[in-house]
Amino acid sequence: MKSIKFKLFTAFSLALFLILFFLSIFSIHFFTQNQENEAISKVEKNLIIVNQTLASNKRLDLLYSQLDLKEQFLFIFKDNKLVFTNESEHETKEILEELRQINFSSSNFIKVDDFVVSKNKYNEFSVYMGIEDDYIEERNEAIISSIITMNSIIFVVFIAFIYFIINKTIRPLKDILNDVKNLQKGNDLSKRLKSNNTKDEFEQLTNSFNEMLENIEKSVENIKQFSSDASHELKTPLTIIQGEIELAKSKDLKQDEFYEVLNKLDIEQKKLQDIIRNFLLLARLDKEAIKKEKCFLDTLVFECIETNLDILEKKGLELKLDIQEALEVNSSKKYLSIVINNLLSNAIKYTNEGSISIKANKNEHFTFFEISDTGIGMDKKDTSMIFERFYRVDKARSDFKDGIGIGLSIVKRVCERFNISIKVESKLEKGSKFSLRFTNFH
């Protein structure tokens, strides 16, 4: 499997190669064309000086000092007789033989053998000036060689730089992969990825992964706690049921004793039903597609109060109500009833004396439901955890409290499914307040 570093390095190298390749072609074309133009321009400048010399009737041998005739030839004829040349007799004869075969047109440059030649006339003088083609080609080859060498050096330097940058950029990812492999080898969920402090997406990835690990660790701890609590909660009623059955089998019971046993069995089996029902409800909330419907909040509140009225009266708690009529909300009658009933039963359960207050009202945009009590309350740590599944406040006192800590988890999950805002305020030994907010119909 090819690494990301290899793929990035290959992609950047290919891109750089193509850029330098096309840049080289453009540069070679530009500089060679420019070199040819400069060579021809040089010939033209020399021709101007020659014409000026001929016009002023100066001595022709002065042209040696006035002209740069390197890699060039100059022939001047007067009345078809050669009166000036900068070439040897042998070279002059060879070039002239070639020139006689060419039909020149005025101001044109023509390729003659190894020269680019121009012919000009000034009065009785004919001027032939040319530059060696090899000279232009050599200059072009030098330019091409320089461009290729320079771009090769640039390519090597940039390749090294690209490798360094990619290696430095990918290193945090390699560190993350190594840490993940080390985590896979062990079974310790408390371990985390090392923070790389790169202030980029790799640091975000590390933080997100660590948050995921933390959530997994919490979930595993919750599952372990749930297994322990569920085992305890299920074991207790089953043990009582088994004990009562064994007692009934071991001796003859009178009718009133028999009814007492049946009553205990009924109470414990109802506890088992409640536990199992809550488990199934949580499973449905995670998977079931739930449709919203119009329902009246005030009606559901009064129904839940009626359900819990006997317990309220037994505990002697004062119930304070401030509920508007016809509070229509977009939710589910079934699940909203579960939410209100859980909040009310919790308030009753954890309040030994004092009162429970319920408010329900609305404004232009929202409908509000609030239930507060004067019960045992919670500290700040517990208020941030109470909606976690299987979490119970004050585990030291949980032995005499019913349930295994999933009632508020159900409340929270229902609120999430129906976009209901929920918050809790609580003070230890002062009481708690749960608030719901519904968005009104528009």
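The record above closes out task 2.4. Task 2.5 opens with a second protein, given below.
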Amino acid sequence: MTDTTTDDSTPRRRALREAAPFAGPARGRRRHRVLALSFVVMVLLPILASGFYLYTRAADQYASTLGFTVRSEDGTSASDLLGGLSASLGGGGSASDANILYEFIRSQEIVRKVGATLDLEQMYTRHADTDPLLSYSTNGTIEDLTDYWQRMVRISYDNTTGLTELTVLAFDPADARQIAEAIYAESSRMINALSDVVRDDATRYAQQDLDLALERLKTAREALTAFRLANQIVDPNADIQTQMGLLSTLQTQQANALIEFEQLRETASSTDPRLDQARRKLAVIEQLIAAERQKFGKGGGGEDGVEYARTISDFERLTVEREYAETTYAAALAALDGARAAASRQSLYLAAYITPTLAEKSEYPQRGLILGLLVLFSLLIWSIACLIYYALRDRR
């Protein structure tokens, strides 16, 4: 029997042999080689170079930690209790003071002041030959030194609590602590200088207010003395009381004379001389009463034409001015005493809750963190570059 399967498959096998050959092994194209080369250049080489530098050339850095806060003087003097006016003269440990201190620590001024006591260039160029990237250049200017200072002195400030913490880096632990101590000393001097300016201004202004109040008091007293000399009256109120007593006495005499006159008119004849005498006595008393009453109104009697109502008004006005001047003088004197009391003590000062520490081991540079960030950003940059390349290629 003939095998039909073999016969039928022969033409099929022949057709398969005559068909196109299978695809050969994949070959890399030019863009693949460019991507691989870019990966090496943008990722591997920076990581390897950075790792080599960090672990073989980079010098160890030591950190000294310093923490402080701005405090205000809470003491109360006797003048504060009397006047209550010097509470605002000494200032307080507000957020603005801490912000000023924050900017001062980062400024060129503190670099100059610390550099005057410490050789910062020698401290920061200790490993300049072996570690040129993380060390300071000896040929730099004060601006360059300030930039490097801001890298080596790290400040952390909390607006809520008002706490300021510094991390001072140096290539030697003793240098780091010395720099931290110098920063604390210069910051204390600066905050004290600000407080001195406030206290000096407050004292000067209080002295000016006192001088003005004293002149006002002198003027008021001189005006009152001139009034007394012009009117020959020490106390118009006492003089009025005297006049009122005299008027009351005359009115009593008038009443008695009137009663006597009425009795004589009823019992005596019209030609009785006693009746004329009583009438004249009553008229004299009425004239005296009228004269006394005129002294309390306009067109007053007497040679000087004293008007008691106006006199009393002028006296009361001058008295009020004198009392006001005395009150102002007492308040100004209390304010000056308070300002002087505040000036005699330190209103603002730095309170260190962490004194400058001395490191026992190197914590900087943070090599693992730096390499990790370098790997992350290198891969991100390389990936973004690849995406941009393919996006531009697909648009062609």
